[in-house]
Amino acid sequence: MGRLMKYLKDYKKESVLAPLFKLLEAFFELLVPLVMASIIDRGIGSLETGSDMGHIGRMGACLLTLAVVGLLSSVTAQFFAARAAVGFSTKLRQALFDHIQSLSFTNIDRVGTSTMITRMTSDINQVQSGVNMVLRLFLRSPVIVFGAMIMAFTIDVKSALIFVVAIPLLTIVVIGVMAWTMPLYKKVQAGLDKVLGITRENLTGVRVIRAFHREAAEEREFRQHTGALARSQIFVGKISAIMNPFTYVIVNGAIIALIYTGALQVNVGNLTQGEVIAIINYMSQILVELVKLANLIVTITKALACADRVAGVFEIQNGEEAALLADAGGGEQAGESGRGNSTPFLVFDHVSFGYAGAGADTLHNLSFAVNRGETVGVIGGTGSGKSSLVNLIPGFYPVTGGVIRMEGRDLKTIPEDELRGRIGVVPQKAVLFKGTIRSNLQWGKPDATEEEMWQAIETAQAKDVVEGKEGRLDAKIAQSGKNLSGGQRQRLTIARALVRKPEILILDDSASALDYATDAKLRAALKNLEGNTTTFIVSQRASTVRHADKILVLDDGELAGAGTHDELLAGCEVYREIYFSQYPEERLKAAREQEEMGKPETAENIGKEGMRNGR
Asked: Global pTM?
């Protein structure tokens, strides 16, 4: 919890005033039993002395004054405590969100989306409640408890010795329950993570669940996890509930002892009836405050468990940051020396990469070079590592072996803002945000002019999409672009990347929902982009990459071949398999021609014939 207290620094005044006003209320409350004792002893008096109505009136007015002042102090304390707690949680949530945004995909994958959401919502809410309760009660309750004991000693030492026994027993109960429940509350929050993860998975995959008629099975699984969470919460709740009966037993036992001792003292004349009532009232105050303190301990226990989880996210750091800071100076020098025409624009030098916890690398020892302005196609079977390769270029994931250089500079030494500002990415899943077409395009370039937007829209073959919408650029986009078809979303996400006029454009299978004609028009438009843009096109369609300047063929994470369409058709078995599986008539045509020429039907001969057909 202490690691998060820095977010309270802007609320120092509120953090001081809230407990001070609570202490003021506690001070007035400690005076009440003395006023009551005075009313009983002097106001009501005895049969011999008679009653003093004037004194009763004055003391009654004093009680009302104490009540009003105490109420005002309590409300004021609550105001400052709430302001500090809400402000603290706002800053903490913003800082946590900013930190998560800065994490690499590796760290986000390792922690899990559902866990991040839980820690940003439920956990921070628990911490907020903890801060609020601490500011209100953490000082007040102990002051009342020990203040009542001290006040009891001022009345009668012998009777007050009962407090000396009762309070340590109560402290043992409170601390014991707190030590027992804190780790259990952490397990409860972990169970909440699981439930949230299942909920998120079911909501995002609801169509698949219904398509396979898995509603009943998913309901059973969800019920199992929610049942386990409920059992955990009930168990820890039972342990927390032990605190109240134990405290009541101890305090009520102390009150019985006080009544017995007080009666003896009154009988011998050492105490008045009013003083006995005052001592019992002080013990009752201790009981009430310990009940509050018990609830406070439960809240603090939850808050501390949640604070540790939130702080755990802040402790996650990107592994490459240290290297970036250490090597930044050298990287700049390397960049200057690498800007000559002889240096390739982008170089993969024996690059390997593996996902966290995968056990084995996804990409193995990749080496190739790309010149500025080239169009590079990336093709391969499902799971061959195509998306993994292009995700390394913007630094979404750090390489686990080798090095990637841009203009001679190690990618790790290029500041993230600079690197991402030079790259436009269109991911596999087309994601649009709630707003308008204009606001979505401005993600690519916040100050983009309408001319730049329309130019990007035309290049992305999305002009008919925008012109067909009411409001055109100001047409509404639903969350995740649900009011658009898959092809429309893909074209608008391509336009969003093109608006910024990137030096490197990455299209990660981003035309899969487009028909062949639109796909061909898009590729032709990309060829004519201004600014000498280097384009990476990831696709499983041979037709999409066959006209690229260079094609990279991946097979199980390894580079099976690199070259033009004709070169690969002649010398890369993996590429031939992909190409002829999509164009079987080409295979049959090449085989027939080989037979007519009297040549054996070998892969090499078919490949050479394919080169001629390709031309």
From this structure: 0.63
